[in-house]
Design brief:
The chain has 179 residues and is of the alpha/beta class. Helix content is 28%, strand content 18%. The chain has one domain. The strands form two sheets. The chain has a six-stranded mixed β-sheet, with helices on one face. A two-stranded antiparallel sheet has the order 2-3. The chain is globular, with a radius of gyration of 15 Å.
Length: 179
């Protein structure tokens, strides 16, 4: 059974948005955060559909329940599990595990350079949703990708998480922390 919330994270270019779309095909997930202004399409790939939390994004990374509910038009538990998406959750792992003891954390890992190159191919700073201004320039983007991936792997190691390879993309790995 799914928890009420899953904190979902991956670095820019990790293809985590596409994986989120795969996950949310399950009717047990709350999809009321999907609105036309949150859609971004690129080439033949899926693009973005869901709300994002982060610095300069539509919703910040404030972990108050009211903020986490904001993107959803129906925040009742009967609407399904909320998949809360942010590149910045790795900076908040300790607080998330302390404040939300029943929530899961799902991690997507893809190597740094592959992620950076995919982010650029998907539109880079021209991506219209979400907002990547916080990353400032390509040098800072690469630094943040390295930093966030390091924190993702460190969290996985700390909690002895089992990583599974994505069935389509051999350089993407997934792990789930369940308290």
């Amino acid at each position: 059974m799914l928890p009420a919330m899953i904190f979902f994270t991956g670095v820019p270019g990790s293809r985590w948005s596409g994986i989120a779309q795969e996950i949310k095909q399950n009717p047990s997930y709350n999809k009321t955060d999907r609105t036309p202004n949150r859609k971004y399409f690129h080439s033949e790939y899926s693009g973005h559909f869901d709300a994002y939390f982060g610095t300069g994004m539509e919703f910040n990374c404030n972990l108050d329940q009211a903020n986490l509910n904001r993107p959803f038009s129906d925040w009742s538990t009967s609407a399904g599990c909320k998949l809360l998406m942010s590149h910045e959750w790795p900076y908040h792992f300790d607080e998330i595990t302390q404040r939300y003891t029943d929530a899961w954390i799902q991690l997507v890992y893809r190597p740094n350079l592959a992620s950076f190159l995919w982010w650029k191919q998907a539109g880079g700073f021209n991506i219209t949703y979400p907002n990547y201004d916080w990353y400032k320039d390509e040098e800072t983007m690469m630094k943040r990708i390295e930093e966030q991936n390091h924190l993702i792997l460190e969290f996985g190691q700390k909690h002895k998480l089992k990583w599974t390879q994505h069935e389509i993309h051999s350089d993407i790995f997934l792990a789930t922390y369940k308290p």
